[in-house]
Amino acid sequence: MRVILLSGHNFVSKGCQAKLDGETINEWDLTNWLVAEVFKRERLMKVDLVAKARNDYNDLVTEVNSLNGDVLISCHFNAANGIAQGTEVLHAASSIKGKKLAGVAQNIFLKNLKLRDRGLCPTLPGERGGSILNKTKQVAILLEPFFLDSITSFEELLDLMNKTADSIVELLEYLEKNEL
Asked: How many domains is the chain partitioned into structurally?
């Protein structure tokens, strides 16, 4: 099984951000760290893990489709008002397999991160994340494990990042052993 692990956003459009101890932390830097960390931890024989980062949004679906993956996991973080928190996983509204995979991912993240369950988010093509979820050939999910702007310390951020990496490895282990 070939799984594409996609870093959300890019170096121009860095996604959500937060200030911790006077330093600006952005989603792009964290998703890149996360994908690299999963690669360091993953040791599965039946999963061909492919890392992908965005160059620009215009060709992203074409680029992802050209990788001939079976599953796409797009890594992101949420932001809102500085007090919201929780875990949610987005999937194409029309994808039965995407909904199943999103449910597995959500359960893993809830168990490991112990944050509020914001539920599964069926997503249409015109909605947030809709293009990558609905226009790629792969079974696709978009992870939003926690709200970056609600983090209050580097210690808390590192703890959640490590638990997020562990959760993705656990999801890959599920994919290695189970059919969608």
From this structure: 1
For the chain, residues with pLDDT lower than 70 are 55-57
CA-based radius of gyration for the chain: 15
Q: Are 165 and 97 in contact (CB under 8 A)?
A: no
* Whole-structure pTM value: 0.95
- What is the rounded CA–CA span in Å between residue 79 and residue 92? 21
Domain extent at residue 74: 2-177
